[in-house]
Amino acid sequence: MNTLRFFARRTAFYLFTAWAAITINFFLPRMMKGDPIQAYLARNRGDVSPEATRSLEILFGLDSSKSLLQQYADYWGLIFSGNLGRSLSHGLAPVTEVIGTALPWTIGLVGVATILSFTIGTLVGSLIGWHRGSRADVLVPISTFFGTVPYFWMGLIAIAVFASNLGWFPASHAYGKGAAPNLSLAFVGDVLQHGILPALTIVVASLGGWILGMRNMMVTILDEDYVTVAQAKGLSSRRVLLRYAARNAVLPQIQSFALALGFIVGGTLVMELVFSYPGIGKLLLDATGAKDYPLMQGVFLIITLTVLVANILADVAYAVLDPRTRQTEA
Fold first, then answer.
1. Distances in whole angstroms, Cα of residue 96 to Cα of each of 25, 81, 100
2. Taking every annotated instance into account, which residue ranges of this chain make up the domain ABC transmembrane type-1 (predicted)?
3. What is the Cα gyration radius of the chain?
4. Which of 189, 166, 190 is nearest to 178 (CA)?
C-alpha cells in the first residue's frame, strides 16, 4: 500500500511538472521581442504578399487572428500528434528531422562521457573514502581543481596541446571534412577519433564532483553502527565496502547522476562551440539567434521530457535501493 501511494504521489508530481514546463515552453518564446516571420522573410525571400505572410503565420502556429489561448490549445494538439512544426532557420524542414540530426551526436558524446565520469568518480571516491587519511586523499583537491577551471579554457588548452602541438587528435568537428555519415568502420573510427578530445575534457571537468561527493558520503557512512557491526562479525573488507558502505553511500549520487543524464540531451553548449561539434546545444543557440520558435520549442520540449524521465528513473532506483524512501513519502 505504501509503495502504491509513493508512486501515485510521484506520478502526480511529474505530470504537473510536465504541464508547467510545456506551458512555459509555449509562452516564453512569444514574450521575446521581434517578429520571427518577418525575420525569416528578410533572410530568404524579401517582400511577399500579405496572403503569403499569413500562410506562414498559420504554418508556424503564430496566427494573429487566434488568441493565445487558442494557439496554446493547438500547440497541445500538435504535441500529442507528434508534429513539432517546421524550422524557420532550416529551410522549413520538420523540427523532428532537424533535432534528429543533432541528437545522436550529443547523446553519443556527452552521454558516454557522463557515464564514464560517474563510474570512475564513484569508484575512486569509494576507495578514497574507505582509505580516508591516506595519500590517496591528494586526488580530491587535484580533481576538484580541474572542475573549477572554466570549460572553454580547458578545451582551448586541450586543443593547443593535444591537437595543435602533439597532433594526436583532431581539433574540431565530429568527423573529417568531406566525409559522408555512414556505418563503415572507417567512418566510425573517424568519429571516435574526433570525439576523444572533447569527451576527455568533459570527464576531467566533471570528475572532481563525483569523487568529492562519494568520498564524503563514504566517510559519513563508515561511522554508522551497521558498518561497525559488519566489521565486528569478521566480514571481509571487500564485502563491507561493497555491500554495506558503498551501497548506501551511492544513493545521493544516483539522483545527481539522473539529473546529469537528463541534461545530456541539452548538451554541453560551451564544448560544442569550442570543438565545433554539431550537437543540440549549438542547435538551440542558433535557433535562439534566428528567433526560430518551432525549433526552440522542440529542443526545449525534448530536454524537459528527458530530464523528467531521468528523474523518474532515479526515484524508482532510489526507492528500490532504500525502502525508507517509500515509507517516508507515503
1. 16, 12, 6
2. 103-314
3. 24
4. 190
Stated as kind and residue range, the H or E segment containing 69 is helix 68-81
* 39-48, 174-183, 296-305: segment of lowest average pLDDT: 39-48
Average model confidence (pLDDT) across the chain? 79
96: buried, middle or exposed (CB in 10 Å: 19+, 13-18, 0-12)?
Answer: middle
Name, in order, each residue with C-beta under 8 angstroms of 26's C-beta and a sequence gap of 6 or more. Answer: 71, 72, 75, 297
| Dist. CA 107–CA 96, nearest whole Å | 16
Q: What are the cell numbers at 24?
A: 512555459
CB distance 90 to 102 below 8 Å? no
- For residues 94 and 84, the answer to whether their CB atoms sit within 8 Å is yes
Of 116, 197, 114, 122, residue with least CA distance to 154:
197
Q: Measure the CA–CA gap between 187 and 145, rounded to whole angstroms.
A: 36
Domain ranges (residues) in the chain: 100-329
* pLDDT in the model for residue 120: 92
Q: Does residue 110 contact residue 317 with C-beta atoms inside 8 Å?
A: no
Query: In CATH, what number does 100-329 get?
Result: 1.10.3720.10
Q: Average pLDDT of 16-28?
A: 84
Report which DSSP code applies to 276: T
Helical segments of 179-244, H only = 185-221, 225-232, 237-239
Sequence-separated (6 or more) residues with CB below 8 Å from residue 73: none
> Distance between CA 68 and CA 187 in Å, rounded?
47
